[in-house]
Structures are given as C-alpha cells and as structure tokens.
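Q: Could you fold this chain for me?
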Amino acid sequence: MKDIEFEDLVLELCKIRDFENGLLDLFSKGLIKGTTHTCLGQEVNAVGVINALNRDDIVLSNHRSHGHFLSHTKNYEGLLLEILGKKNGVCGGLGGSQHLCLPNRFYSNGILGGPIATGVGIAYAQKLKKLDKLVCLFIGDGSFGEGTLYESINIASKKRLPILFIVEDNGIAQSSKTSETTSGLIKNKVESFDIYTDEIEYPDLKKLILVTKDLIRKVRAKTPSCLIIKSVRLGPHSKGDDNRSKSEISDLINKDPLEKTLRQIKNKEIVSRIQIESKKYINDVFDKCISNNEYTSIYKTYFDQKQKTESSYKLPSIKLDQVSNNRFGQIINQTLNDLLTNDKKIIFI
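A: Sure. Below is the predicted structure, expressed as structure tokens.
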C-alpha cells in the first residue's frame, strides 16, 4: 500500500472518530433526541474491512453502525441529517441512528443480531441471480445468544452463500460481560457449521486489510467465511450507560487500534495535518447540517410511503367460500401456494 493511500485511510479513521465525538457533544447540548451508539474504538474495523470490499458489495450492520455506514458510503452529511431527524437525511429522518437503509448498498438494524437472517437472505438472492456481489455482515459477540444466528449460519454454510461474517468481539453486550453470559468460544461455534473462520486481536489498519482481503477471496470462491476481530469499545453502550471501572477503560485506551495505526506514520507533521484536516471537515459538516431547518413530518412521510407500498404490490385475495370448509392450517397452506405461484421471487424455507 502506497503511503498516500494509507494516509487517506487514516484520515477516514480520524473523521469517523471526530464524527462520533461530535454526536456525543450534540447530545450534551440537547440537539439530538433519543439515543445513539457510537463506534469509538472500533473505527479500524469499519475502514479496514470495508476497504477490502468492492463498492457494490452489500454491507449490513447493527445499532453500532455509523463507522460501517460512513466507510462504505462516505455520506457524512446524509447520516448526520438523518440522526438530526431532518427530511433530507438518508432515510428521510425516520431511521435515525440505528435503522439505516440504502437499497442494495447498506442496511442496519437496532438489534445486534437483527440483520443476520436478512443478510443471509440477501446473500442467497445474490447467488440465485448469479451476481458477483458478496454480503458483509457486521455482528458482535453478544449476537451469539441469539437463536436466529445459528439457523442463519447453518443455511449460509449448506447453500455456500457469498457472505462474510464479521464479529466485532468487544467482550461486552450492553453492560454485561459476554464471558459471564455466553458459554464456549465464538470460533468453535462458527467452525462447527463448516464456516472458515479466522481471528485477529486489536489489529492496526494495514494488518486488518490484508487479513480481510484473503477472506474475501475465499468468499468469492464460494466459501462463506467469518472474521472475529477482538475489539475495544471505548464509549458507553449508548450515551451514558457504562459501568466499567476507570482501570478497565484505561487498559482499553492503551489497546486503541486507531492510535496503534497512527503510530505507523513516523512523520508527526503528517499525523498532525491529518488530525487537523479531519476536525475541520467534521466541524464543517456539523455546522452545515445543524443550520439546516428541513425537519421531516413523520406522519406525512409514513402515510405517503404506506400508500406507495399498498399501490405497488397486491397480496392474492382468498375467496372465503372456497376455504370455509377447510382447517385453518389448510388456509395458510393455500395462501402460501398462491404467493409462490404469483411471485416467482419468493422462496419459502
């Protein structure tokens, strides 16, 4: 990797961290409502993994999705406007911090294990359509208490789907240590489904890119794979719920992959320039978005979208006189048959 390319990626890391710190500052000023989950300490995961993908690969994430979204789309203004609830945000101000959607590019879900089945379904669709796209699914160690995860991994393995599972293992699920709530090793669980699995601890950017590129080659060769990244969560679960001790936080700060990556640039003037450029860029984005007064009308947007959905797709109707003498299970069966007959894109598992 050329120095200039590496410096551009480091700038991206710094911009994501400054963006996240900026969000917490807006909360303290009462400018953001609800909650948000920053990726402070996990920026290298997002930039390192997504840099190894193709631009048209599909990324799915969870409630801690900002770094993944920004790295894959570079849309800082769109994300901030979304979090601020403004109508020109990426989802019209309705998705907020956790529920982001760019069709065929990026999807996130507020539940840590929420997007797993969706990601496997999208990967299955890519395979059936014979598209040269893979799905990159970011989950966490807390996902391994989710039953859907095991069913989904099983399907991904049996169908040899083009999917890369990224497990950001920060050792904590909200405020509970996963070592106290989840038995066994993550690697053993995933490998038991015949999924190729690799592990890396607190990686710097260069190392993570190399490891991810190797796994992506396997996925494109019809070998669904998993990368477990031992990670640090420097911030609270959302914006104020952190019961970890000061010594524990201090230990994590010493492992910060962003700082480890910055130390790889020996010229301190370059590091300073990158940090100054990052802060200026993010400050400009925040100033522009905060001054924007185009707030969304939630109810109007909802009903407009509902009307579009209802007018564009019609479920097959069932004539009651044809099914009144059947058992309820037979009615369900007939409905599913009608759906499958009328829409060849539907797959029933």
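A (continued): Residues 187 and 197 are 7 Å apart (CA to CA).
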